[in-house]
Amino acid sequence: GEDVEQSLFLSVREGDSSVINCTYTDSSSTYLYWYKQEPGAGLQLLTYIFSNMDMKQDQRLTVLLNKKDKHLSLRIADTQTGDSAIYFCAGRGSQGNLIFGKGTKLSVKP
Amino acid sequence: DGGITQSPKYLFRKEGQNVTLSCEQNLNHDAMYWYRQDPGQGLRLIYYSQIVNDFQKGDIAEGYSVSREKKESFPLTVTSAQKNPTAFYLCASSIAGTGVYEQYFGPGTRLTVT
After folding, report:
1. CB distance from A45 to chain B under 8 Å?
2. Residues B95, B101: contact at Cβ < 8 Å?
3. Which of B40, B43, B99 has its CB closest to that of A100?
4. Is the CB of residue B63 less than 8 Å away from at least one CB of chain A?
5. pLDDT tens digit string along A52-65?
6. For B74, which DSSP code?
7. pLDDT one-digit tens code per residue, B30-48
């Protein structure tokens, strides 16, 4: 089955770019997702990418997909303190459920 | 407003007691899911349901039970058989199928068992 790996922590300064990386094992997932979780709250979908795309840009967010290396990344431009949260990448399981990585905690220092 | 609600936000129980966590959605979604979140562990799937009166075990179903008698509701019971029940529990819903369908999450219930 799908396995999704992420680094656990990332610290950046306000105004810098953040890059959160993710690797996955099952290339059959049609869509790959990035979710954001603020402290003590549920998850919100940030963006997703279709598996036949290399890149998707949405305002400050850029998603890059390297299918050959099974590598997904999320770049946040001009990172703000409000971006501090846990970011999860996820692939789709065979029954429609999502399979999440362990999450990357992004800390933004003023 | 359409959305998914979980109650209560915080729940405290003594060891050996069963406890039921509520999850309700008014998004008209067929599919509903329960995840458990532990620090540094990400989200793990407990149970899911693609349609009323049907549900499937996820990766960590032992010690949990669910029912899906109504489309809007998917309650989770944490039984005394669950060895380590203290965790943050998240419910989600989506359109059933395999498209890009977004999963909408509730705000979560933090369960503490002592």
Report:
1. yes
2. yes
3. B43
4. no
5. 889 999 999 999 99
6. -
7. 999 999 999 878 899 999 9
